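re: that complex we talked abt at group meeting.

here r the seqs, copy pasted straight from the sheet so there may be weird spacing, ignore it
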Amino acid sequence: MNDCSWYGEQISAYLDGMLTREEERALQAHLADCPECSALLDELRELSEAVASLQREPPPDFAEKAVARAAAARRIKSMIRSITAMAAMFCVVLLGVGSIFLFRESPADGRPVASNAPSASAYAAPAEPVSSPSSQAKCRTFAKDKSASREKNAAAKESNPSGEQNAESSSGSVSETDEPQETAFRETEAAPGPGNGISTAGAKRPTVNRPLETETAISSSPCAGSSQASQWKGGPYFAVLTARSAAAPPESSPNATYLILNKEEFNAFLASWEAKGVQYTLDTTGENIDSNAQTGLVLFHASN
Amino acid sequence: MEQERELVIRAKEGDQKAFEALVLAHERLVYNLALHMTRHPEDARDVAQEAFFVAFKRISTFKMESSFSTWLYRLASNVCIDFLRREKRRKSSHVSMEEKNGRILDLPDTNQSPQERMENRELLCAVEQGMRKLSQDHREILVLREIGGLSYEEIGAVLQLEPGTVKSRLARARLHLREILIREGNFPDRAASKKTGKEEPV
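got the structure back, here u go
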């Protein structure tokens, strides 16, 4: 056998029909002369058949169980996904509700907003003329985005127009989470504009057409706008509070003055108008800026 | 083949019926591979179930670059190897392999005469015992070839071996099994008899 050990592999492959024609011919010639290898071929064939006969059928319910296990896993996975989605949705709702309360409680700090360049994009739009003493409440609900502004504004209209709320909004400390305010303040420091922070749209579009008597006072105190607003005799009065980024003051009008204010300043102005009974138009859509804001004092609420 | 491809596509999309059809088509080889690798019916059932479960979980990642059966058998082989590694770590403190081996297979009934059945039964018992003594690699390749009927090319794809290696490993596995059976007196060494000129015992 030892002399023929090389043929073991060939015999095995021969059983499987894996030899080339030449190899097969050579092996068959050897087998004819070598009874040992011939016997080995028979043995390996017998063993091969014996091993094949060791095959067993899987348990009858094998496939059923395998599929059931897979289906259970799929259900669990699906359940986990649903729970995750619901948890995410809950968090979003929670954040939304939380932010509403946060803004409602957020007091003003009276920091002026620079409007040289980027803040000019914060001009809001549309016009929904309002002349009501309840706007004190409205002033407290200005939000970072247009939809929030509208929603809060509407809610404020329906709730109460208490003067205490205005005081709270104009004299309290600034919420640390109110990023837009802080950003606006940094912009003011970095980019000095006319009027120490109360800027007109003049940097982009010349908008100051009358001397602004209120500038200094407003920039130094959030409440100053209330007292100074009464000095404005130009009328009529417009307040534009939408945060549509594309909105901008109309082209310069010789009869109008545009002020770009942050939330607190904006609120302070409106509060003072309310206190003095000034009739003004509150523009919440920005759609009528060009037609409504050609005369008088026009306030723009900077969104950021 | 095209039908299997269709089933795989549907299974990848989560079709439970398609997955069931794939299980039915391949359960026999997966189970037998597990049976001869684990050498115990209950372990084989669990390991084979695990193999299909893993396949179900991973089928979405199957890129269909190879045949599904190749992918599945390779996966099943890996599951078996993982099982054996775990077993090896704990076997010394539990039931010995010999005890476990004693419970392994029920031999099938055939239409043979009582004497033939007895002889066949003895041979099968001997072969089965011999298989258990083979190395893991040899058991695996013998099952894929003899029970699964896989070609050398398919075996190479499953075990990630070159065709030449498949050929040599398969030959060594067969020769080793033969040696074990002869050594234990369970198989007549006809080749040696031919060499020495002795008649094989009846």
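couple things i noticed - The domain at 1-88 of chain B is CATH 1.10.1740.10 (Rna Polymerase Sigma Factor; Chain: A). Residues 178 and 187 of chain B are 7 Å apart (CA to CA).
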